[in-house]
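User: Batch of two.

Assistant: Item 1 of 2:
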Amino acid sequence: MKRSLSLTLAFVSLIISACSSSSAENPKQPNESLSSTKDQLVAPAYELVWGDEFDYEGTPMADKWHFQIEPITDSGWANNELQHYTNRLDNALVSDGTLKIIAKREDYTYGGMSKEFTSARLNAKFDFTYGKVEVRAKLPAAAGTWPAIWTLGSNIDEKGNYFGNSRGSVGWPHCGEIDIMEQYGGNKNETLGTFHWHDTGTNAYATYGLKKSITGLTENFHNYVLVWDADRLDIYVDETLVVRMNNAENVPFDNPHYLLLNVAMGGSLGGPVSASFEQDQMEIDYVRIYQLKN
């Protein structure tokens, strides 16, 4: 979701395409038989290995979450976004049983650069290979907001992230990226599920993703789910499959990933921000990561 500025809007069009020319080998379409969907989502063989129920007040727990506050410059690791990420309660607050990631219009200077918006970007202090991720969230409604629930390979060594180079330094897209949920700033009735990786067969960047129309994304909580194993990757909203992809040999999603939560402003998917925008938020009821027992 937050990749280099070298990914232009041309790449964004690939995000929602049915399949790019370098996409996964035989990616499965969401209209295939889903008779096992419910079993897969609630399989009793899963056990909870990490999570946060947000049953406390104040700052997100320091032993679970890392604030990534590296300033977004005109050339770097973002997508023409308009915000600074901060570690303030103004932008990330746990209260009344939920985490609020709050994007605000305000003049804010950090790292010698002034911007007109602030928000927060959280890294989970936990990485994992394979399993099920479930995040229950209500999305922001304002035009120009770009919320995301996603993962990166922890070997990325991205600026300001939690793991640094402790897991490697392969960079993006070699690390792999799984966008469990993204949303356009101008269309709040759709959610996107997208995969980005370095194709080892073509030795080139590749992406595959689909979008799904879902009602009530900004009014109600929905479950955003990734089911990931050595054979395939599935992304759901509640029990509706958004996108399915084979985990083929040329699609190296076989390394540890960590979860990210953020709300960007503007940028490649956020688009124009309304002149009347003051603030909005992504509200998260819980985050749960499961893996198969044994």
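Item 2 of 2:
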Amino acid sequence: MKRLYLIGGTMGVGKTSVCQLLKSKTHNAVFLDGDWCWDANPFQVTDETKRMVTDNICFLLNSFLHCSAYQNIIFCWVMHEQDIIDGILSRLDLTECDVKAISLICRKDALTKRLEKDIEAGIRNKDVLYRSVERLPLYNLLNTQKIDVSDLSIEETSEKIMKL
């Protein structure tokens, strides 16, 4: 049986880092970051670009699910609304697949500290702080397993995910 990890969380919570480690710790694993399917300049959010990114994500995830080389498919994206998760899952062939829908959550102070570090390093723009903090409460409304990463290392977080 294949396993599909859907890992959501607000910007800066540590999704990509956790997923990269999870990929290295699981057998026959492949990782897709939803942001890779929508890396554009300028970044434009329209109905057309939203459809395009979802099409891209679903195409790649189905390709991984159908490929015999992969047992563990790891996907992360912001996924702050249940409709996003449900929309993606409804378009996937989940035959003989165990889906683990997970939201990484954290306290506001922990998220602020992480994002300020990234902003100072030039990795992120300042406006991400407000947008990311604003989305934090939305994850509590989702039908996902929650992992509070406020005081967890990337290693500890990946271990918790692997035990689910």
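The first helix runs from residue 15 to 25.
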